[in-house]
């Protein structure tokens, strides 16, 4: 059989810069590559047929993981938009990596409560405030390491 350049890249894993050295048949505006030739080239390129198959499998797994991450990030962004105004921006500023929706709802409730109490006192919630971050996340502060720890002792 024959494969187009796109099929050779996706199914056989041929790198873009290798196409000039692989013989092909030109039909109109389409280059067609023989399956056997592509297989021989990739076996030679990877070292063995088994390494070639592993190369394709790794590439496919990487693509699937990237797609799953992209979808998860999109879903998370949509969910964050349903929470309190300002929470998504605050969450980005302090680099939360949490994806669990129930935990994010909990963080959002704490964020709203803290912001209201601060506003009552004429203060604003700051992204660089460690105590605020600890309160919103509901966790213990991390112990200090390095010169800061020695200076406070």
Keywords, separated by commas or semicolons:
2 domains, mainly alpha, 3-stranded antiparallel β-sheet, 153 residues
Word description of this protein:
It is a single chain. With 153 residues, this protein is mostly helical. The chain folds into two domains: 2-60, no CATH class; 84-152. It contains seven helices and three strands. The protein has a three-stranded antiparallel sheet with strand order 1-3-2. A hairpin with a 2-residue loop joins β2 and β3. α2 crosses α3 (49-81) and α5 crosses α6. The mean pLDDT is 88.
> What number is the mean pLDDT?
88
| CA radius of gyration | 27 Å
- Please tell me the total number of domains: 2
The DSSP helix count reads 7
Q: Assign an overall shape.
A: rod-shaped
The strand line-up of the biggest sheet is 1-3-2
The first-to-last residue Cα distance is 75 Å
Element-by-element helix/strand order: EHEEHHHHHH
- Report the uncertain regions: none
Tell me briefly what this model is.
This protein has 7 helices and 3 strands, in the order βαββαααααα. The chain is mostly helical.
């Amino acid at each position: 059989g024959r494969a187009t350049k796109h099929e050779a890249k996706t199914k056989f894993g041929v790198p873009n810069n290798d196409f000039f050295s692989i013989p092909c048949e030109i039909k109109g505006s389409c280059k067609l590559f023989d399956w056997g030739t592509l297989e021989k080239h990739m076996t030679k390129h990877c070292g063995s047929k088994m390494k070639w198959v592993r190369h394709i499998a790794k590439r496919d797994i990487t693509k699937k993981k990237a797609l799953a991450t992209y979808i998860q990030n999109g879903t998370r962004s949509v969910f964050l938009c349903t929470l309190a105004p300002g929470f998504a921006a605050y969450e980005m500023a302090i680099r939360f990596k949490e994806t669990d929706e129930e935990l994010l709802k909990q963080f959002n409730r704490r964020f709203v409560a803290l912001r209201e109490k601060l506003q009552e006192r004429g203060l604003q919630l700051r992204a660089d405030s460690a105590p605020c971050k600890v309160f919103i996340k509901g966790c213990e502060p991390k112990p200090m390491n390095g010169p800061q720890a020695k200076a406070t002792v």
